[in-house]
Amino acid sequence: MIALTEVLNAKILIVDDQQSNVLLLEQMLLKEGYRNVLSTMNPVEVCALHQEHDFDLILLDLQMPEMDGFQVMDGMKEIERHGYAPILVITAQPGHKLRALNAGAKDFISKPIEAVEFQTRVRNMLEVRLLYKKLENYNVLLEHTVQERTAQLSASEARFKNFTELTSDWYWEQDDQGRFTTVSGPVFEMLGIASGSEESAFIPAEGNEAELANLKYNIANRRPFFDFVYTLQKADGKTRHLQVSGEPMFDASCRFIGYRGVGVEITDRHYAFRKEANFRKAVDVIGFGLCLINRHTMNILDMNDVMCSKSGFGRTDLQQRALPDLQVGSAEQLSSVFDAVLAKAGAQYISGNMLCADGSLCAVRVDFHSFLDDADAVMVGTFDFSPAP
20 to 30 A Cα–Cα from 177, which one of 95, 131, 233, 259? Predict the structure, then answer.
């Protein structure tokens, strides 16, 4: 809707070679409250004035010397910016009405002018003209918004690409048939498949049966999969481990169109993990219980499986206890032992009985050592459950 204030503030130009006609039209417009009314008795000036003021309505007399209204309309066609020539012709010749409309006028009014008809046609033409302008401004704003959103999307895609490059070795996309459509990085080399192959990269022929079954289920049901470990035996006999994650892609109509995701080689991490796992196994097979203990609170931070099996407590139960809760020395005695260990006073130990989960006591000797973790001392307790008598 166009507000009344917008209509009354519209820019209007009166073009007539008779001053009496100009004064009459000005009075009629001012009486209705129109505020921006200009006039000229020289039709040659119309195009230049319109270029300067961009009028919302031009009241144009057709019969004028030197340059008639039809010639004015011909000139207007070359400069009108909004695709809607705002011309209301005023004529006493019935035969000129159709010709004027064909020449570009949007409406006409006959002389002698009837006030109510005149005000109605002026109001209607102004509303249409202002709606055209609003639509044009909206389209400009929409185009600007689209350009802005496109720039934001491009920036977002660039950030996403940079992020994937920083956090992974490659980025990939596949179509709904499992064929690669986009790759970034050495995808084919790392996966050991030929470039352009239609092979699905994430369903290897061999591997952990449970993990493979879960991966196939996720892909068949268009679900994401995370951190799938892909093991490759290279021609040189070396084994490489890759970690792949992917998510399904859908178009605007929710039709599945493929997968996209990232991958990273984790061979070094895999072996580091195996070394750590092997070390923990070695700690368990030696037959001694092992605990890491907070120097200040004496809380048990971690333990090996032997400690759990011998005490009868689960891992979570032990992590909720402090060493004095197991009655392996009092808090004062343990504090003194810890101080001696940190002062490098030689081997420190406590012999006695440890409280087990079933309420029984078992003989134990605990040797204490320490190491630094971020400049804070962590106590290490080694529990020998078969101490010499």
Answer: 233
Domain spans in the chain, listed from the N-terminal domain onward: 4-138, 168-271, 286-384
Instruction: Answer for the pair 85, 106: CB distance below 8 angstroms, yes or no.
Output: yes
Residue range 332-360, pLDDT digits in tens: 999 999 999 998 867 799 999 999 999 99
Terminal-to-terminal C-alpha distance of the chain: 101
Among the listed residues 275, 192, 203, the one whose alpha carbon sits nearest the alpha carbon of residue 236: 192
3-class secondary structure, 386: coil
Phi/psi at 110 (nearest 5 deg)?
-90, 150
CA atoms within 13 A on the CB side of 87: 29
Same fold, 168-271 and 286-384: yes
Q: Name the one residue in this structure whose structure tokens are 């011309």.
A: 87
pLDDT of residue 150: 82
pLDDT at 200: 54
Q: Are 168 and 264 in contact (CB under 8 A)?
A: yes
Cβ(367)–Cβ(349) below 8 Å: yes
What's the CATH superfamily of 168-271? PAS domain (3.30.450.20)
- CATH classification code of 286-384: 3.30.450.20
Query: Which homologous superfamily does the CATH classification assign to the domain defined by 4-138?
Result: Response regulator (3.40.50.2300)
- Bridge partners (DSSP) of residue 174 are 180, 259
Q: What is the DSSP string of 248-284?
A: EEE-TT--EEEEEEEEEE-HHHHHHHHHHHHHHHHHH
Whether the CB-CB separation of 109 and 92 falls below 8 Å is answered with: no
> What are the tens digits of pLDDT across the range 183-209?
877 667 666 665 555 555 556 656 667
Model confidence pLDDT, tens digit, residues 107-128 = 888 888 899 999 999 999 999 8
List C-alpha distances in Å: 150 to 134, 138, 155, 159, 163. 24, 18, 9, 14, 19
Identify whether the C-beta of residue 318 lies closer than 8 Å to the C-beta of residue 307: yes
